[in-house]
Amino acid sequence: MHLLVIGNYRLDRQKSMDAYAVMMMEQAGRLGCRAEVLCPPVVLGRVRPAKVGFGKWLGYIDKYVFFPPLLVLRFWGRRLREQGRVGVHIVDHSNAMYSQWLPRSATVTTCHDMLAIRAGLGEAGTGCEASGFGRLLQRWILWGLHRSGRVVCVSKATRNDYIRLAQGRRRAAESVLIHSALNGQFEAISDETFERVLSRRLPFKGIRNYLFHVGSALPRKNRGLLVEVFARRREAGWDGWLVFAGAGESADLRTKIDTLGVRDRVCFLGEVSHEELNALYAGAFAFLFPSYTEGFGWPPVEANAAGCPVLASNTTSLPEVCGEGAQLLHPDDIEGFAAGLAALDDPTVRAEWIQRGFRNADRFSREAMMEAYKEVYESL
């Protein structure tokens, strides 16, 4: 079987989805499939690369006008050469609309979350916003999911959302649950490796003296709680730092940091490499993930694999994904998060949570994920 793995538009710079597409291509090859990644070409987007304004609309033309004919030609060309044994895996549901140009029986789409779709349909509490065109786009994406031959959801929470929004469609009820595997290698490291990787990035020395968070600045990520909890730890005498990777400092987060008087101990690193991210997990006192909503939630599992204790929200997909590998708390429970961190001061308690994390991370192996996908591919 030949598998076309549909990746994302390069200028969208969705690193996790780019890595996911490459991982699926590599793993499909180990199942005996000949696989290749196919992405929308960057043509007009070169004129003004941007995610907003005029540049965003040029990107839409590349994705929704130029790419579909190329996809159709590639699919049918491969089908002729492979005597019909060709499948298409759309690895990001935001590209689900491409299924309309392909045979339903040959198409699989992975759905990572329904948050933007729910926002596009007018639902509150998703942490996402949708413009006028965005609402149309999200409805198009939902229709593309219905048009796919098989839909794979990465969590029970996401699958439940999809079935509910599908309003009784048979194909939604037939959707499959397959947990995502880790996109890369995460592991515990030595103190020497930590210093080598991060000595020039961090404004302090040593491990276990900072709390860590990685992610976007979307309100649903609830980064303000981290500052509140960190301030409580400082008041209790903990002489550590709070480190953010990913998105920079938003206006409301800046206000909270200044109001609580912790500016001198908060560090924003911006984008980090995979090696740096692994080191940041491995060297942290704890990883905090107080998100209100998630479709899956990779970071807690990545922290588990790197040997870092995790405190996370008890909402949406996170209890399912974190399993026994995290202290689960309500995303508004400042006192609970602070108490959970204080409990980690006991070396025995800390060691127990690290071992729980390792066991949880073992559930998300690539081998287990691909065994499940093998059945999906064979059904095409």
Strands ordered across the widest β-sheet? 2-1-3-4-5-6
In CATH terms, the superfamily of the largest domain is: Glycogen Phosphorylase B
Low-confidence stretches: none
**Globular, elongated, flat, extended or rod-shaped: what is the shape?**
globular
Give the number of helices.
15
Architecture of the largest domain in CATH?
3-Layer(aba) Sandwich
**What would the CATH topology of the largest domain be?**
Rossmann fold
Calculate the terminal CA-CA distance, rounded to whole Å: 10 Å
Major sheet size, sense and barrel closure? 6 strands, parallel
One letter per element, helices H and strands E, the order comes to: EHEHEEHHEHHEHEHEHEHEHEHEHHH
How many domains make up the coordinates?
Answer: 2
- Quote the average pLDDT: 92
Structure classification: alpha/beta
Cα radius of gyration in angstroms: 22 Å
Instruction: Report the β-strand fraction as a percent range.
Output: 5-15%
Give a count of the beta strands, DSSP E runs of length 2 or more.
12
Q: What is the CATH class name of the largest domain?
A: Alpha Beta
Task: Report the helical percentage.
Answer: 40-55%
Explain what you see.
With 380 residues, this protein is α/β, with parallel strands linked by helices. It has 2 domains: 2-181 and 366-378, Glycogen Phosphorylase B (Rossmann fold); 191-364, Glycogen Phosphorylase B (Rossmann fold). It is 46% helix and 14% strand. A 6-stranded parallel sheet has the order 2-1-3-4-5-6, with helices on both faces. Helix 8 (223-235) links the parallel strand 7 and strand 8. Helix 8 (223-235) packs parallel to helix 9 (251-259) and helix 8 crosses helix 13 (334-343). The mean pLDDT is 92.
